[in-house]
Design brief:
The chain is an alpha+beta fold and 173 residues long. It contains five helices and seven strands. The strands form three sheets. It has a three-stranded mixed sheet with strand order 3-7-4. A two-stranded antiparallel sheet has the order 1-2. It has a two-stranded antiparallel sheet with strand order 5-6.
Length: 173
């Protein structure tokens, strides 16, 4: 439970849950601890199971809609996002003095060129996923080192840092 919640500013303070678990042994050079990963995925799955049927409440609370049926709209939104146009204009106008923008400009051009094909693929994959009839849940979207702690008192795993969480198909986590 939070120690303090400031709804106006969207912040809360939690008590210390203990040390982060190291899912990769030693940061990025170690081997994956498969038993620990299985425990983490079980913990995450239990959170996901508790959110089944609460999609509307979670969306109303401000979670991003990443459900398969919403992906096509989000894809269109991305392609038509004003900041993408600003980035394209910046790349075009500054390419001579900032050659590092070249790959970004090239990527954006490829994105626009391949958008119809990508849109068809997103639609196809979304329909395949929806056909599985697996309900949407909350997704953490950043499971990894430093976002999972072992509670000192109980030994239970706690998943923290839900700032990138969204609503979607549970297999996406």
């Amino acid at each position: 439970m939070p120690i303090y919640v400031d709804k106006e500013n969207g912040t809360m303070i939690l008590r210390d849950y203990g040390e982060p678990v190291h899912l990769y042994g030693t940061m990025f050079g170690g081997r994956v601890d498969k038993e620990l990963w299985a425990e983490v995925m079980g913990t995450l799955a239990s959170v996901q199971l508790r959110t089944i049927g609460k999609t509307d409440d979670l969306l109303e609370a401000g979670f991003v809609d990443g459900r398969p049926e919403a992906l096509l709209d989000r894809f269109e939104e991305l392609l038509n996002h004003p900041e993408l146009g600003v980035l394209e204009d910046l790349c075009e106008s500054r390419l001579e003095d900032l050659p590092a923008l070249g790959p970004i400009s090239e990527y954006l051009g490829q994105l626009r060129t391949h958008a119809p094909h990508l849109k068809r693929k997103v639609k196809e994959i979304s329909e395949d996923v929806m056909a599985l009839n697996i309900p949407a849940t909350v997704l953490h979207n950043d499971i990894g080192t430093n976002n999972v702690c072992r509670e000192a008192e109980t030994g239970k795993l706690k998943v923290i840092d839900w700032e990138l969480a969204y609503i979607g198909h549970p297999f996406m986590d």
